[in-house]
Amino acid sequence: MTEAQSTADAVTVSADPAAADRGIGGAAVSGERQLEVTSSKPSGGADAGARARQLAPLIGWMIGAGLLIASFGLLTQLYTGQVRTVTTIFTFVGLASAWNLIGGFTGYACFGQVGFFGLGGYATAVFMTHYGLDFWIALPLSAAIAAGFAALVGWPLLRLRGHYFAVATLGVAEGLREIVINLPNLTGGGGGITIPTAGADAPTPWLGNDGFYVLFLLLAATTVGVAGFVSRHRSGYALRAIHQDEEAAAAIGINTTKAKILAFAGSAALTSAIGSAYAFQQVTIFPERLFDVHLTVLMVVMVVLGGAGTVFGPVIGAVLIAYASEWLRQELPQGHSFALGGLIVIAVILLPQGISNYVRDGLREKRFSMLDNIRRYRL
Amino acid sequence: MNQFLQATIYGLLQGCMFGLVAVGFSLVWGVMHVINLAHGAFVLLGAYLAWQLHAAFGLDPFLGMLPAGIVLFAFGYALQRGLINLVVNAPIFITLLLTFGLELLLVNGLILVFTADYRSIPTTYAGRSFVLPGDIHIPFGRLIAAGGAIAVTSGLFYVIRRTRTGLAILATGMDRGAARLMGIGARHVYALTFGIAAGLAGMAGAAVGAVNTFSPADAGRYTLLSFVAAVLGGLGNTSGALIGGLLLGLVEAWGGQLLGGTWINAVAFAVLVLVLAIRPQGLVGKAYYASRVEV
Q: What ipTM was assigned to the predicted interfaces of this complex?
């Protein structure tokens, strides 16, 4: 790339510093390309294009419903070990889609998402162990607590942007973990807490492998459904507008504070519900596992590699990475994290805009060279 | 009173080390807008390098700071030049993920080579301590480590403020477009910056190895520590990182005296979040980071 070209690239970034600061999948870049395409299209094709755009959400919902039914069918075909693997994949589909609400649509780099996961898990464990609450009551209650907590910390923290927001949320999650460790009477501290799941004092008996398969499938489906609804709803457009340029969004009358807090709280509630189900599935939970920073990073990796700010991108990313991770764990028990690290490095360099955006743009422009991706962001 | 004084001294010595660990992280953040999640892994690479040199040639770990720094400088330079420069203009997530992938590679590579066991580099003198009147102990090893940390960071400030190379780094951090128009090769300067940061982390690692135990699993802890110190000192403000590290060391030592158990960690994160919410430019210094021009 010549110096002149690179300066031109740089100028488009600087035109929207706020979005570039917070941005993920290069929303500014893709928006710009959309503009190019619409202007170069002959006017006769506009009608067909509009109709296709109206049909797109319907097709999306149909694909989603088909996948849901197929997943139920899949359950009858799997061995016990495979059921557990697929359940893990559903867990990550849900987590990635939930993170996508705040990180992908809104463009706020939440690096403390695992805090809500742990909060949900521990709230459920405490309710079930100390208060004998039914799991089906504890789960929505945990989600509500996480939503309230997110709204509370989100109110001051969502004013921060870019790296500042990322570090602040990271601090919140680490702080939550420390609080859990330091309340041994309530949470068992570092030694973990065990939910009674069998016998007379169990509020809800353990659901079994198939039961948890269905539970995580439904949670993942709910989360993806919420993302699908938001992506075509007024609120979703508001979030995207905030992602692209927050000042402009405020100027056209979007209540940005309200929209951001709603997205943050919704994302937190969904993550917390999944954490709650995870705690029940694991029976014994430890702060090190439930507040593991690597979980947050995995969510981000899945969303970014799948395609941030899209509905199916995070699903694709979660399925691919969760499956690759499980496969590596079985094939390379010693070096699976090493291999996963290498995989992430290669994928980030070659596919920075995510798989779904890459395929969509590639189909539109008939260019599939991954070298273009490298040229876009290199110095 | 003596106990308080002892805690203060211990905290200051520890804080100097924290500062050395954090200063490279802060430099990379300020100049390149990159959060290097692999920073803790660099610290451990330095520690293992010093350990290996000690095991093979009996080299003193504090002398081992030098080779550790040089090797990690070369490694960091190559890494930035060959890999990170490819995505340096991308949104923050991309660089975060890339460095996270690097962290996984390095930490698990270290586990494969050295196992996950805790190690330390034994010396005959590091365990001894001066005893001041009032029964206040100053551990000898930590004193050397703190002195080394201060010397190295002072050297860094001299290089950054007083040499052409350092000024080129500062200029590139402030406005890359303008710096390039002035004939500064941004690719080389970025690689140099990352190399310096990695070299500082390597030196910190060798010093850490001499006074503490370490294992590859500590990488995340050191990255997080750099985060907190860098934020307390003001993001991207290099001298602030040293002050942030000192502050962190003091808070940890005093908190350990006042609060029971590990509540101090919870307090540290609460302070971190509060500082960010109220004074995002850090406790010391002005908003250097916010004044950067994005080109």
A: 0.85
